[in-house]
Protein 1
Amino acid sequence: MIRKWTPFSEKITKMLHGADYNPEQWLQYPGVFEEDIRLMKLANCNVMSVGIFSWMALEPNEGKFNFDWLDFVLDTFEKNGIYVFLATPSGARPAWMSEKYPEVLRVGPNRRRNLHGLRHNHCFTSPVYREKVKIMNTKLAERYSQHRAVIGWHISNEYGGECHCNYCQDAFRTWLKDKYQTIDNLNHAWWTTFWSHTFTSWSQIESPASHGETMVHGLNLDWKRFVTDQTIDFYRHEIAPLKEKNPILPTTTNFMEAFEGLNYAKFAKEVDFVSWDSYPKWHFTWDDVDVAVWTALNHDMFRSLKNGQPFMLMESTPSLTNWQEISKLKRPGMHLLSSIQAVAHGSNSVQYFQWRKSRGGSEKFHGAVIDHVANENTRVFKDVMEVGEALGMLDEIVDTSIEPEVAIIFDTENRWALKDAQGPRNIGMGYEDTVKRHYKAFWERGIPVDVIDMESDLQKYKLVVAPMLYMVKGGVGNKIEEFVTNGGNFVATYWSGVVDENDLCFLGGFPGPLRKTLGIWSEEIEGLQDGDTNTIVFSKNNNFGLVGSYVAYELCELIHLEGAQALAFYRDDFYEGRPAITVNNLGKGKSYYIASRNKDQFHSDFYGQLTKQLGVKRTINSELPYGVTAQLRTDGEKDFVFLFNFSTNVYSVELTDGVYIDVRTGEDAPSTIELSPYEVKILKRTAIL
Ligand code: GLA
Ligand code: ZN
């Protein structure tokens, strides 16, 4: 098992702290850059992401490049011990380019080309855009790929979106031909006989559009897959000249929170390390627990994308955003708490958008380290200094690992298909929320979790939970069966094993390829109105050890036992007495089926019981009050235990499992830790193997 990961760069092996830095906005303001350097040092910053939207500053006229300002910035950074993620500027284009070559602009599903404007709106197929990117990236690579300040490439910015131009239509058709070989294969996979949608030539196929086709689910799914593949292809095109000049300089692109537009599980294979931008909606309600849970889940997902390799928190806000419905300020303590949360879940950095607040433009009121007042005497700057100081004490945590015994499957292609299908509950199938509610039961116990896609390896886990695995791709059913047969434990829910990778229903009974593993047949499912409920009741003396009843809502499935035993039954309606929770023994393992959507209390009790039975390791073995959690990183010799209080109450937590040192003070920690509202403690103990 990996305990300490290889450093991603030999140049710096510290926790990184920094921001997106856009000095080109300030070139006409003397003294700003020098002041920035002073303030960066004051905040203990050691990294900046530079050049993200700098195309115009780098190539003000076609073929006329200007690197002077960037030379100066990078050289000065080097002298001051500040490292750089150097960006390729493809996230936005100069107006001269759009004017001269309109094909670089994106075409919408309505087949209309956008005008010049905004950002993130290039065509990813356009030969001209690709050529321009190649020239730019080659120049950047020639000039900076050996620069001592540069520790990695930040490719473009938050790739996302799609283009429907003719180049893209052609590329899509080629992609389909590669995949299906014959049009008959495609017609079968897309079930096009329905509504006479059969295609007789590839040229008849168009990308989905609201004034055209939206109801062929196989087409929708393949289009999304194509968009991922074409984006990856564009990324490969971007990095080719960079890798040619310096193959060992790592590349990444900043991913977004639970972004649905791209299959990150696939994209992550292309990047040298994962990085992502996190903007939780702290304080939107007075209970931050669900936000903390969702953010933790995202961190775990981004870490799991590369098999546990530490990631970088590439962006976060030091205070507020200006694009959420309302802009809440982070309460005292929240900045440190949320920054260290990222570290606890596997980040090797805390970075912000952005360093200095823009004077104009659309993000002039977005939080930044330096406000318009332009000095260090702000609450936000002090919060950032506090994080800088804390990160400065965490060098020994860099590249440590997290080794969960539990994995939750949160799969993008499943998500696409499940949400696209018209079915049991068109007012919302709630996939993301469901995954979060299952995850929460582990979070509140301080049990580390990996968040994986269905194609990930399962062998290292004791327990795998797959909420609503509607789509089961080829091979996945067998893999899960083998996992359980060999002693693994598997939990599935209603609406699982319904379709294959083409969104074609399994014939012969749901949950299709999971039927044997689960020992049940699911005959029917119904959606409940908002507010309607049923009740599930655990049978007396069931061998699982849970008693009592729980509320079921939104989705209830009617299942038959085919070898599994029922642990709980429905109490109400015409399906009173039908099984609601089952367990099936298969080989050395067990599989559980949860036939209805249940509330948090159920998940808490169910997973509490299950993890206890399986002896799943918790970070610490003591009571954690509501809103308090614990997370673990380890290097095999030392465990780093993070205690978080996401509530507004003062709580205390008993420390078990040895003697602890408070990493930030260097002092012995008392055996009872008091946590103020939004407080975090970083502790160290001898590793428990
Ligand atoms: C994204 C972008 C940044 C900035 C921030 C604002 O993460 O990458 O350029 O717009 O959002 O929150
Ligand atoms: Zn296009």
Protein 2
Amino acid sequence: MPMHVAVFSTKSYDHEFLARCNAGAHVLEFREERLSEATASLARGADAICAFVNDDLGRGVIEVLHDAGVRLVALRSAGFNNVDLEAAAAAGIAVARVPAYSPHAVAEHTMALVLTLNRKTHRAYNRLREGNFALDGLLGFDLRGKTVGVVGTGLIGTALVRILRGFGCEVVATDPVRSPECLALGVEYLPLRELLSRSHIVSLHCPLTPETHHLIDDAAIASMRHGAMLVNTSRGGVIDTRAVIRGLKGGRLGSLGLDVYEEEEQLFFEDRSTRYIPDDVFARLLTFPNVLVTGHQGFFTEEALTAIAETTIANVTAFEQTGSPLHPVPSSAGRAR
Ligand code: NAI
């Protein structure tokens, strides 16, 4: 019996990649709606739902999904901070994820942010188009020989370390688990505060958990090198955005690159160009010339979307055939924020 899957937060690219990998194996019902308590009942009659990073899978939604007959939540993401795992376990709903699709996609996007912020190509592009060929204000620095602090040396952090070593950077890292590959690449593991005080650039690649929520706060920023660059392509909540704005205003932070934002579910993945930005904190961020924000596009490569679709369909097929998905998220992974 093919599984009936309600796919939430669908964009044209999700439809295209999932339908191609599914090849008729399951019944996929594509919905544009973001999953929330208001939309969860749309899953009625489905065996499984498929969700993305900003879909709400808190206790309230899980209860509605349970009543609707859903038995599997198949996440199209690696992170599962948006799922109440205890509630899912209590409701007998299995949760699956895509543990690794392309760490290179996110690591390479991180490097794009670093290079753009450093050499100000975003500003140069606009200047040139207006006939302004002056170089004032575009001064960067050589990456070779600079110290980069990588917070979290899992799949993405390690992929970034490889790239950074190619640029001739010194790399220091912090992670409760040391990566043998990073150690072999000459990475020195340090406590977070020491990493912050040594690094010219700090890049965040840890998951969002209660422990890492607002890891970068006022105190952390105060311990950074004056004028350091901070890049976050992990999850928005790892950074206290208001503290970062204070750091930018005081000059402690030299530049900031973000692919994720604490309140991004109100903004990202939609065309809002004909409306105003209702989030004043986000709007303030956009006023800084040394801040570069992309809208959670680190994962957005051909290879990553293919891998996400293949693993998602494999999770659903395994659940259909064996009663458990290929890549389950254990309920013991705890309630993350
Ligand atoms: P991973 O699970 O391979 O690595 C995470 C690493 O962080 C692990 O080595 C873990 O030990 C470490 N860690 C946990 N707590 C820490 C702490 N307090 N301090 C330092 N390190 C800590 O995960 P992966 O695949 O490398 O992804 C990292 C994060 O990137 C994901 O959790 C997700 O939030 C984010 N992500 C963002 C994407 C984007 O499009 N911008 C796409 C995919 C993932």
